[in-house]
Amino acid sequence: MSDPQAVLAALADPTRRAVFERLNSKGPASASELALELPVTRQAIAKHLSHLGSVGLVDRSHQGRQVVFEARVAPLGEVASWLETVGSEWDDRLERLRGSFE
Amino acid sequence: MSDPQAVLAALADPTRRAVFERLNSKGPASASELALELPVTRQAIAKHLSHLGSVGLVDRSHQGRQVVFEARVAPLGEVASWLETVGSEWDDRLERLRGSFE
DNA sequence: TCCTTTCGCAACCAGTCAGTTGCACTCAGC
DNA sequence: GCTGAGTGCAACTGACTGGTTGCGAAAGGA
Questions:
Q1: In terms of pTM, does the model score above 0.85?
Q2: How many CA atoms are closer than 13 Å to the CA of B33, on its beta-carbon side?
Q3: Which among A18, A91, B19, B40 would be 20 to 30 A from B96, CA to CA?
Q4: C-alpha span between A19 and A16 (Å, rounded)
Q5: Looking at beta carbons, which residues of chain B come within 8 Å of A87?
Q6: What's the average model confidence in pLDDT over A96-102?
Q7: Phi/psi at A66 (nearest 5 deg)?
């Protein structure tokens, strides 16, 4: 259960988004594999994966010598519901405003 | 029509989120008013408002000598639908995976 | 055992950005 | 015209962080 704002911040970086979307669309991969497909070094990828992992957007598992990372979409739902909450606050405000004219 | 990733990045900063949520929950305010309620200077607020405005999360209007800012929630919907798209990509991948076993 | 691959850790660099300070401008009220 | 409130612009600073390089450790294969 990661807080939505941390997930928001994690998705704010373009490279981190690229890593996540790559894992999400083409399936699990290791940091080295990702480094071949993206224009940054393995170390940069590893840092981003660690960041993504800390907010629950990525799962790590060992396969022999390799460490394979997999995307997890559950935190996205929490962000979505947070956005919905903010939106409904706005609706409430409209409602109160309407009420004040009756 | 602001792109969802810019909105994402705009909402990533805690202070900027605080400004937006303040405007969203308590209604329009000027930069000076916001500076009284938040622990940063008016200039910092003004920069954040400019940033929020550039992604469509805030509307500005003049009231006499004052400049009043108001929250706009439409871009939040775009972010939500983007999140949904990412989620559905994941569903597609599951579907393909399922198909490969038949 | 030796070599290679993969990974993790630490140090370092450079760019970005949040925040402050200072100053100039505008406009309403006296 | 003067004063004060509200705003905008520019320069500066400090901290954070994305990215790289270098090195050492662990693990599989010949």
A1: yes
A2: 12
A3: A18
A4: 5
A5: 73, 76-77
A6: 65
A7: -90, 155
